[in-house]
Amino acid sequence: PPDHAELDYPQLLDTAMAAARREAGRGHVAGYIPALASEDPEAFGMALATVDGEVFGVGDWERPFSVQSISKLFSLALVLAAGGDGLWSGVGREPSGTPFNSLVQLETEHGIPRNPFINAGALVVTDRLQSLTGDAAAHVLDFLRTEAGNPAIAVDAAVAASEAEHGHRNAALAHFIASHGNLHNEVDDVLREYFAHCSIAASCRDLALAGRFLARHGLRADGSRMLSRSEAKRINAVMLTCGTYDAAGEFAFRVGLPAKSGVGGGVLAVLPGRAALCAWSPALDRAGNSVAAVAALDAFTTASGLSVF
Ligand code: GLN
After folding, report:
1. ipTM of this predicted complex?
2. For an engineered disulfide with 45, which of 23, 61, 137, 270 has Cβ 3.0 to 4.6 Å away?
3. What pLDDT score was predicted for residue 97?
């Protein structure tokens, strides 16, 4: 791959934004809760944070949006950082091939979700983080604020309330998992913490900075070791295979980077050893991934020649 110095990141981001703009009108903003449905479908932003702390951005890269399932990446990392390896007996590492909120596999797999990035798996991760820390969502929030250097990052209370009000499917998942003894906390507490971390509002800039520990093989912004190289590699691997739900194959095919998406329209991707990137645009495809953000990342890796392959 080309050297850092040879890459013109601002120009690559402009190329990516131009590709995103060509997707205007495609996809639909998440409508499963009213609090998200009012987003402008054509908003777009993208940021790149290098391993040594330089940050570049285009479009609405400093505008906060609902991080949703991108938070699942941070809750997983925080469980592993707190020594919660036992997590892997309660959640698998295989792509599900079913939508992110599906219930079907839980019955045949005895309450052990396929991976930590579908809702069922993320509920187990939140449960373990709750056991380890006593306040799972506050830990996710604190991590984001510290890594991004932005104390203004916060839980959007209206989104969290909307999640709870329309949360029957997540509640069904959590109760089913609990029926198999795979939740250690009260279902209501797990759901509250899960909805809270999904409802954090942060920008592309914030998320690119907060995702750098995965590009830095487990090192936090202050240089302290959060995860072993092996744990960081594993999280990147699960992102590549499961981070964009049942479109992970298509995403690897087009973009070729470990990534985690959310129904708020964000996609956080990792260039190991080099940078973390976040693209955002609210209109989603059928799998729940942002149409324009995926197009932007596709254009970025194609134009730069950078990917994990
Ligand atoms: N809060 C959303 C949910 O639980 C997160 C889903 C997502 O971003 N894919 O349905």
Report:
1. 0.91
2. 61
3. 82
Q: Which long-range contacts (CB under 8 A, 24 or more apart) does 185-190 make?
A: 185/127, 185/130, 185/131, 189/130, 190/123, 190/126, 190/127, 190/130
- Report which of 269, 34, 260 is spatially closest to residue 160, judged by C-alpha positions: 34
Q: What's the half-sphere exposure (Cβ side, CA atoms, 13 Å) at 84?
A: 21
Structural domains of the chain, with CATH: 4-304 (3.40.710.10)
CB 255 within 8 A of CB 301: yes
- Its pTM stands at 0.96
Centre of ligand 1 to C-alpha 262, Å, is: 7
5, amino acid identity: A
As annotated, the binding site includes: 69, 119, 163, 170, 194, 245, 263
Tell which one of 65, 96, 100, 162 to mutate to probe ligand 1, the residue whose CB is within 8 A of the most ligand atoms. Answer: 100
User: What is the phi/psi pair of residue 49, to 5°?
Assistant: -120, 120
**Residue found by looking up tokens 């396929």 in the block:** 114
- pLDDT, one tens digit per residue, over 11-43 is 999 999 999 999 988 999 998 888 889 999 999
Let me know: does 261 contact 289? Beta carbons within 8 Å. yes
User: What is the pLDDT at residue 96?
Assistant: 86
Residue ranges for the chain with pLDDT beneath 50: none
The pLDDT assigned to 7 comes to: 87
Question: What does each C-alpha distance from 57 to 6, 27, 206, 246 come to in angstroms?
Answer: 18, 23, 11, 29
d(CA 3, CA 1): 7
Which residue type, as a one-letter code, is found at position 19? A
